[in-house]
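Continuing the series of single-chain predictions for the mutant panel. This is the parent chain; the variants come on the following pages.
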Amino acid sequence: MTDLRAVAWRTSDQSIVLLDQTRLPGRQEDFVARDVDDLIDAIVRLVVRGAPALGAVGALGVALAMTQAQREGWDADRLASEVRRVRDARPTAVNLAWGTDRVTPLMPQGIAAVLDEAAVIMAEDEAANRELSRLGADWILGRTGCDRVRVLTHCNTGFLATTAWGTALGIVRELHARGALELVYADETRPLLQGSRLTAWELQQDGIDYLLQVDGAAASTILRGLVDVAIIGADRIARNGDTANKIGSVGVALACADAGIPFVVAAPSSTVDVTTPSGDDIHIELRDGSEVTALGGVVTAPAEARGFNPAFDVTPARLISAIVSECAVVEPDGQSSVEALVRE
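Parent structure:
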């Protein structure tokens, strides 16, 4: 596995260094956020994305705002306003607000205290990802009864979406390490191709056998019996077990339900939002329609076409076989809550 990290703090110039995911797989470049505007631009353009990675970015973003406040002489109100801008830059993924909120009470103690807690968040995330991968692999092998499983993934849930290792793709890595993985079907994930640009790149880095398919092929692949389990991540898990993830996830869940194979959601406990009762209460981010009407800067639709571009959808708990965190594996039934996924 690569030693690259999606998110890091650079002490020399008090900046946040992000592996620019808009450049992959063609170029491996860093984006350096030196102020709040830089960071929000990176979040909105998906230079950095993935719920756990955004948690770390939220925490580091507070430190970045504090350094800019010192440099530019902001008053307390301006600083608080800039921290809120970071916190609210992407509304569906709960981790961004969670990471920001976790370090905000430490601001009176200074930048060093905020950075220390951000480092703890990042270390906890890697440990959580590795533990949930172990638990998830155990559950999948037990449920399917397969010695070697064929897995379908949607979007990117590897180290690029986290601080290290990965969530759903972390489970894939764990299965591969055990010799229990036969093949991965990776959905391309329109409109921004996180599956083909990022997941395929990560799988190739790790020497994992995979096939890349268009999103529209996923249901057929499942119903033809070519897949044993689908594993996705989550950007928010509601109290009743409904989960928000990249658009297209619910279609995979419906196909799995019809085929009678497990549909597994993998996310650290920081993604569980017990203050959100159900998926009906999750705000779905609507992105620029031009991401749908063009591809790689090339217009693919009539000039007058308007694109509808929800970034996420919500999978009801009744379609989910298991939700895996570092704390537990929960099999939601549409009635039970998910508090077991979070340590007391």
